[in-house]
Write a structure and sequence with these properties.
Layout: E1 5-9, H1 15-25, E2 30-33, H2 43-46, E3 56-59, E4 62-65, H3 67-77, H4 92-114, H5 132-144, H6 155-170, H7 177-186, H8 190-208
Helix pairs in contact: 1-3, 1-8, 3-6, 4-6, 6-7
The structure holds glutathione.
Amino acid sequence: MVDELVLYTNPQSRGRVVRWMLEEIGEAYKVEVLDYASTMKAPAYLAINPMGKVPALRHGEAVVTETAAICAYLADAFPQACLAPPPADRLRAPYYRWLFFGAGPVEAAVSNKALGFVVPPDRERMIGYGNIGHVMSTLEAAVSRGYLVGNSFTAADLYVGAQIGFGLMFGTFEKHPAFEQYWARLSARPAYARAKRLDDDKAAELKKAPG
Ligand SMILES: N[C@@H](CCC(=O)N[C@@H](CS)C(=O)NCC(=O)O)C(=O)O
């Protein structure tokens, strides 16, 4: 029997990134939509993610949380989708590098910027991302190559690209041509369009629901 895939999410969350990843993989999956104020903090879900946050993924008995980790897990669990270099391949180096750069420095720098927090220049050495200018120029150079890993699209592009896409939309990323061109290419993928439509429809449905 094939292990069931279940995505725990809310259509207005980082769960959109995992939905895109699942659409790229092309395997059947179930979706459990959680409400921020109620079901996300209820014991049944806290047993899956004690952080009370989405997304989370269950694959049979295995549970994985953290958007970047979920994307990496899915890419390895379904190698036929070719979304990660094989484990022994040297391309695993840039693959890990950019996934972790996205989940660490990019996420922290962009969140701090959104909150108006600026690292005092004399404390940059102790902050993992240093300053947001360095993070952005490093990322800009990386995406200007076309893809982050070798010459093909991987889960690293999906995860980092989704951050760029959201950032351009919400104004936390500056509209540099390199970011805009990279995102235009990624968001033209059919799996992205399918995932976006499914989450947009679910969000509209929840908005209409009474209460
Ligand atoms: N580090 C987590 C962050 C997850 C996260 O913060 N999710 C938000 C939605 S995008 C959430 O569930 N917030 C609900 C809460 O904190 O109460 C990841 O990358 O998946």
